[in-house]
């Protein structure tokens, strides 16, 4: 059952930022797809850690170091349980981009002979293929472009249709015995399309390929279980799921993490160092070089507990209702082109659209003047926008604290955009500008 409006209003009391005014108007925050607001419990968890337990983890013998290490590893266990994983399969990273680069550059190191015999399973060469989709965020595209360039592998992409979506058949048509890696987004940050990940993973594994999942737009909103998804690596960010910036999560199957050569090297991740060579600790420590994001991990664990108390299934159902409300309302406004799945089709709680004759940046400023925060631009998905024949879109994204009134305010404001900028259907030249 979806969260009710009354429950949402009660939840909002936990989020100090939502009480703010912007340009003299109550803030309607519809940009959670970029960065979510944080509840007081998450802010307090990090603050309390810094006051009472702040210290370097793992290396110290004093009491504070022990408390910090315990909190740090408890956070790892909490996040692991959140996605049905084991603690030693969770690697802390700076963000999801960092996590995806860790995998791509680790495979690159394996392709250059690093990591010994165990890493040979990752090695790429000319003739091998890496498969992505045309809808990928740059974070799950550019690292694979770089990997292909450095190894001689070929980068191929699953094409999308005029709505920016693709089918399982489209994916199946591109996978061959040469496919070594399939890197794919769970939910598009532009269209809200939810990919059939378990089915794609099964097909990829039939061809012997590894599957890397960008779960940035799914982990904050829906229940994930790595066993059910069937992927090999999975990445997401803390700041999109009520947590702090500066921390991300990489999950990988334990045997893969322990075979993958490290991306960064230095302190904290080594076993033995001589002046000639070094050996590395097992995962996850082998990927956590340097000073770790300890307070951020503690805060992310509290964000996970908050989401679990509310219920991911209820959040997902609520967001679907809000997305359908936005779709229906936008469809009634002249000059609006919506991208992504049609009304009635399940999608994430975000909607991107183009306003005929008005640039997305102008749309965003018009809405901001009314206290409504949305995202504008290509959303780090230039190839997808190019395929759609657009340079930019406006994106409204909901979360567990979004109210029906905020959605209706947003729709009323969008209805006034073209008139404000003097673009109307009755003036042909202006309407086509």
Features of this protein?
433 residues; alpha/beta; Aspartate Aminotransferase, domain 1; Aspartate Aminotransferase, domain 2; 2 domains; four-stranded antiparallel β-sheet; globular; cysteine desulfurase activity; Cysteine desulfurase; Aminotrans_V_dom; pyridoxal phosphate
Structural summary, described in words:
- The protein is 38% helix and 16% strand.
- The chain is α/β, with parallel strands linked by helices and 433 residues long.
- It folds into two domains: 5-30 and 311-431, Alpha-Beta Complex (Aspartate Aminotransferase, domain 1), CATH 3.90.1150; 44-308, Aspartate Aminotransferase, domain 2.
- Helix 2 (40-52) packs antiparallel against helix 10, helix 3 crosses helix 10 and helix 11 runs parallel beside helix 14.
- The protein is globular and about 70 Å long.
- Residues 426-433 have low confidence and may be disordered.
- Its cofactor is pyridoxal 5'-phosphate.
- Catalyzes the removal of elemental sulfur and selenium atoms from L-cysteine, L-cystine, L-selenocysteine, and L-selenocystine to produce L-alanine.
Cα(first) to Cα(last) distance is 45 Å
Please state the overall shape, judged from the principal axes of the Cα atoms.
Answer: globular
Task: Give a short account of the largest sheet.
Answer: 7 strands, mixed
Spatial order of strands in the largest sheet: 4-10-9-8-7-5-6
Estimate percent helicity. Answer: 25-40%
**How many helices in DSSP terms?**
16
- Per DSSP E runs of 2 or more residues, the count of β-strands stands at 17
Q: Are there runs of 5+ residues with pLDDT below 50, and where?
A: 426-433
Looking at this structure, what is the CATH superfamily of the largest domain?
Answer: Type I PLP-dependent aspartate aminotransferase-like (Major domain)
Number of individual domains: 2
């Amino acid at each position: 059952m979806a969260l009710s409006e009354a429950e949402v209003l009660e939840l909002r009391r936990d989020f100090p930022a939502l009480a703010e005014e912007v340009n003299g108007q109550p803030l309607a925050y519809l940009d959670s797809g970029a960065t979510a607001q944080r509840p007081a419990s998450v802010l307090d968890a990090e603050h309390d850690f810094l006051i009472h337990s702040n210290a370097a983890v793992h290396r110290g013998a004093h009491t504070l170091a022990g408390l910090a290490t315990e909190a740090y590893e408890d956070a790892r266990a909490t996040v692991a349980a959140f996605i049905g994983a084991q603690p030693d399969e969770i690697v802390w990273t700076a963000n999801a981009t960092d996590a995806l680069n860790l995998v791509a550059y680790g495979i690159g190191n394996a392709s250059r002979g690093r990591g010994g015999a165990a890493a040979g399973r990752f090695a790429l060469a000319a003739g091998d293929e890496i498969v992505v989709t045309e809808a990928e965020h740059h974070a799950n595209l550019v690292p694979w472009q770089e990997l292909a360039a450095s190894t001689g592998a070929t980068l191929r992409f699953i094409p999308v249709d005029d709505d920016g979506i693709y089918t399982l058949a489209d994916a199946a048509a591109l996978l061959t015995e040469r496919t070594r890696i399939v890197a794919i987004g769970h939910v598009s940050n532009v269209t809200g399309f939810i990919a059939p990940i378990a089915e794609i993973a099964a097909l990829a594994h039939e061809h012997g390929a590894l599957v890397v999942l960008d779960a940035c737009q799914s982990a904050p909103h829906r229940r994930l279980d790595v066993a059910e998804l069937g992927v090999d690596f999975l990445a997401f960010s803390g700041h999109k799921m009520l947590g702090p910036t500066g921390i991300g999560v990489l999950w990988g199957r334990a045997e893969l993490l322990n075979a993958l050569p490290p991306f960064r090297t230095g302190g904290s991740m080594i076993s033995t160092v001589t002046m000639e060579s070094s050996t590395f600790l097992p995962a996850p420590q082998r990927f956590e070089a340097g000073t770790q994001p300890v307070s951020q991990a503690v805060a992310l664990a509290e964000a996970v507990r908050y989401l679990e108390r509310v219920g991911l299934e209820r959040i997902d159902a609520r967001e679907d209702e809000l997305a359908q409300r936005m779709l229906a309302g936008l469809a009634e406004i002249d000059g609006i082109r919506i991208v992504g799945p049609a009304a009635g089709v399940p999608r994430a709680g975000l909607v991107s659209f183009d306003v005929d004759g008005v640039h997305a940046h102008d749309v965003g400023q018009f809405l901001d003047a009314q206290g409504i925060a949305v995202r504008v631009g290509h959303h780090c998905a230039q190839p997808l926008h190019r395929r759609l024949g657009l340079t930019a879109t406006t994106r409204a994204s909901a979360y567990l604290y979004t109210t029906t009134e905020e959605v209706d305010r947003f729709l009323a404001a969008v209805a006034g955009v073209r008139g404000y900028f003097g673009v109307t259907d009755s003036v042909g030249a202006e309407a086509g500008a």
